[in-house]
Amino acid sequence: MRHWLTLCFILVWRDSDSVSAQRPIIPENFYTQEHLSELRAEVQELFYHAYNGYLNYAYPLDELQPLTCRGVDTWGSYSLTLIDALSTLAVLGNHTEFRRVVDVLSEKSFDSDINVSVFETNIRIVGGLLSAHLLSHKSGMDLEPGWPCNGPLLRLAEDAAKRLLPAFNSSTGMPYGTVNLRYGIPPDETPVTCTAGVGTFIIEFGVLSRLTQNPEYEAVAMRALKSLWDHRSSLGLLGNHINVESGQWVATDSGIGAAIDSYYEYLVKGSALLGRPELMEMFWHHLDGIERYMRKDDWYFWVTMTKGTVSLPVFQNLEAYWPGVLSTIGKNSDAMKSILNYHQVLKHIGFVPEMYDVQQREVRPNREGYPLRPEFIESLMFLYQGTKDKNLLAMGEDVLRAIQHSTRTPCGYATVKDTRDHRLEDRMESFFLAETTKYLYLLFDTENFIHGQGISGKLHRVASRSCMLDTGAYIFNTEAHPMDTGALDCCHGPTERDIWQKAWFPKESPKTNSPESSDDKLSIVSSPSVETCKKPHWQSFLWIKFPPRCPASSAASKSWTGKRRRSSLYSLLTCEAAPFMQMLCIGGEVCDI
């Protein structure tokens, strides 16, 4: 009975014209450890119902069709759901099944004559394999000598990533959207790619470079990000589709949702994961434009990238990740205001639809579905870690109840075709097992190893190097595959000079660029000196216009206390001199210094 009480909470209205004023009232005695244990068990059962349905009816095809209990290839015919679910098995602690799946995948090859999405293959396949590789030490597997710099899943991830590299062979360095896994860019491939499809590689490719000592992956990802940055408008905004050969914007509406979303996410996360404050400075600059032009009563509307005028006053399901991003940089108050808006849509309709007209307060025609997306739950998980507000647990339980009540089938869970009448569609995307179930479980599992506070870890040695694993410094890619930041210190990764040279002069020796620079864009004014290359970051020669918002280096290094606070005048992720422990504090709050 108490599971259903969260659906009946009275909402407090302070302002009838603002959804942000609504806040559910949660009794203090709710969500005890016993209650959370019951919710975790329910989410586990939900995961295994869908996972076993895939194994029984769909494997080795990509995804399950949960209404007809059949399988179908969708993104590339490479057992996509099995790979996508692997890191969730580790989070749930099912080490036996994790080891079994690793044995199955170890013999796999991506040498196939098929065209695949570069974006989806990267986040689901490369990201899933890298995450599983870094989590494999927790499963009791026999690790190869030199792990994490060696291993079957790492080799498999690199095999997939190498086949994506031809996509970056454009005149701008921005990747094409489709590649053939055997032959490269298809002859008839369009040069038009969405912004997220250009800027969502730095996590996976950065990790791959650090583990394999091959600078090419991180270099192409950085060059693509820099190219997008150079094409921003004077307002600091980006369009949503661009021609990767000409650099011309094809679609100039700017937002935080579909076709752009994970670009912003990867600036924040890539900065923390790889120690690149220049990415965080890019994000701050974009955030100024987002807050000034897109934010309206804690919604974020689509605007024109050159003038900032509202072009589409809607909320998209894919935008629900944004409060989670705000929470990771310490903006919990702003994040909570938006999450309350989104939750009210869920309470009104039963699900968060693909697109909701904020002015008309109704689902947009032809965008009424809900494909079991995770973004709203993702933000709940990050924001709960930063605030411990039990209202967020209640919102998560609302999502769980809706999924259980309306989408469960005999062999899995089905996409909601229309959120107005809850008709179903015969598809269960792989991200349901990679993201939706994982974030639900982590929301209710407050003691999971993923939530480590950086006060303990496991010392690991590789030859003459040592690194600290399992401190809780996990960065999720946009498919919810966690990467252990500490593991990147285990390997002799490429130097900054290697990455710089690969990014800008892949076929030549370093040379001096024109000293002239635009007043509107950041540019490299010269190749770095040897002294510059010994420094950990590019700031001294690349990121000229926006200096880091940091305290003095001596103060940053001497006064670290390990304590947390809810807000800060600057982000520690932008501080070049910040100690490693400070960069761990990104799970909902920033740290004191």
TrEMBL record:
Binding site for Ca(2+): 478
Keyword GTP-binding: no
Principal location listed in the UniProt entry: endoplasmic reticulum
Signal peptide: 1-21
InterPro entries attached to this UniProt entry: 6hp_glycosidase-like_sf (IPR012341), EDEM1/2/3 (IPR044674), Glyco_hydro_47 (IPR001382), Seven-hairpin_glycosidases (IPR036026)
GO cellular component: endoplasmic reticulum quality control compartment; membrane
Cofactor(s) the record lists: Ca(2+)
Subcellular location: Endoplasmic reticulum
A GO MF label: mannosyl-oligosaccharide 1,2-alpha-mannosidase activity
Gene Ontology biological process terms, A to Z: carbohydrate metabolic process; endoplasmic reticulum mannose trimming; positive regulation of retrograde protein transport, ER to cytosol
Gene3D superfamilies from the UniProt entry: 1.50.10.10
Uppermost EC category: hydrolase
SUPFAM superfamilies: Seven-hairpin glycosidases
Keyword Hydrolase: yes
Listed EC numbers: 3.2.1.-
UniProt KW keywords: Calcium, Endoplasmic reticulum, Glycoprotein, Glycosidase, Hydrolase, Metal-binding, Signal
Residue numbers annotated as active site: 120 (proton donor), 261, 354 (proton donor), 375
Protein family membership: Belongs to the glycosyl hydrolase 47 family.
Role played: Involved in the endoplasmic reticulum-associated degradation (ERAD) pathway that targets misfolded glycoproteins for degradation in an N-glycan-dependent manner. May initiate ERAD by promoting the first mannose trimming step of ERAD substrates, from Man9GlcNAc2 to Man8GlcNAc2. Seems to recognize and bind to exposed hydrophobic regions in target proteins.
Protein name in the entry: alpha-1,2-Mannosidase
Species per Swiss-Prot/TrEMBL record: Daphnia galeata
